[in-house]
Backbone:
């Protein structure tokens, strides 16, 4: 099954646009596990078990594992997710960006070592830094486009004067992902929930691309504005929340608290989605 089809199936099955980001920080674990890096798998598995029926995807961030020499725990977690929630796609948040044989090795890491269904990539070294991932025809790749951090303006919001219409750089990335780079329909885009107007601009340029949208929750992105700007019936969005769900409680009930927060966020996103379906434009 192609990656975009797995997204659509997960959205329909779980009635959800919510992605739970798995960014384990041992310093924020419950008191009995606090600062214990050996509990990274246990913490993340608890979150997965509590939310697997509520999400369109899970998104483990590789840096949070590698920083604590916990790659083996990440492999264990990937296997656990495939076992308990095989219907939920896994997006490995790695933001890789390199060329040639190095990119091929990163693709092996993401898709063969960890068994991810999709990976996040930086496109700023050009198409040959993306192409090795597209050899895995059933996998997906989300290109950084208009990210949620303020520093994204330094490059992404610059006009390209030598291209007709003088688009912003992020609009040009969106056009490439929708068009000539999208060889097998595998590419999506990362756009931050903190910039709903830019989400709408990206959606105009790339009407069919899946969008991975971080920034809802602790980063302050507006969930309703995000859905209205990005969701379309024929183009899925994956709205990520990490810290607000992971650390909803610092006590032993952390997984139950995570489930409650995930339910609340899913309901908010679903309500906005239904407003779009009922609206005069038929978003």
Residues:
């Amino acid at each position: 099954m192609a990656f975009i089809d797995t997204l659509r199936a997960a959205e329909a099955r779980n009635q959800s646009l919510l992605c739970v980001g798995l960014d384990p920080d041992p310093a924020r674990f419950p008191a009995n596990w606090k600062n214990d890096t050996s509990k990274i798998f246990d913490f993340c598995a608890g979150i997965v078990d509590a939310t697997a029926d509520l999400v369109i995807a899970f998104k483990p961030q590789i840096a949070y594992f590698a920083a604590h020499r916990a790659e083996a725990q990440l492999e264990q977690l990937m296997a656990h997710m495939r076992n308990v929630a095989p219907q939920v796609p896994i997006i490995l948040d790695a933001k890789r960006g390199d060329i040639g044989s190095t990119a091929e090795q990163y693709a092996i890491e993401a898709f063969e070592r960890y068994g991810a269904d999709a990976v996040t990539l930086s496109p700023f070294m050009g198409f040959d830094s993306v192409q090795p991932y597209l050899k895995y025809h059933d996998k997906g790749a989300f290109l950084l486009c208009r990210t949620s951090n303020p520093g994204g303006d330094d490059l992404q919001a610059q006009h390209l004067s030598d291209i007709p219409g003088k688009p912003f750089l992020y609009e040009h990335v969106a056009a490439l992902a929708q068009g000539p780079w999208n060889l097998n329909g595998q590419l999506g885009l990362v756009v931050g929930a903190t910039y709903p107007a830019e989400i709408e601009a990206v959606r105009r340029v790339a009407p069919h691309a899946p969008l991975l949208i971080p920034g809802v929750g602790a980063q302050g992105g507006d969930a309703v504005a995000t859905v209205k700007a990005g969701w379309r019936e024929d183009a899925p969005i994956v709205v990520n929340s990490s810290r607000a769900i992971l650390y909803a409680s610092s006590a032993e009930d952390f997984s139950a608290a995570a489930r409650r927060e995930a339910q609340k966020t899913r309901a908010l996103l679903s309500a906005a989605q239904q407003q779009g379906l009922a609206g005069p434009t038929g978003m």
Notes: The chain has a mean pLDDT of 92. The first strand starts at residue 18 and ends at 22. Strands lie at 18-22, 57-60, 91-96, 118-121, 140-146, 187-191, 211-213, 237-241. Residues 254-278 form the longest helix (25 residues).
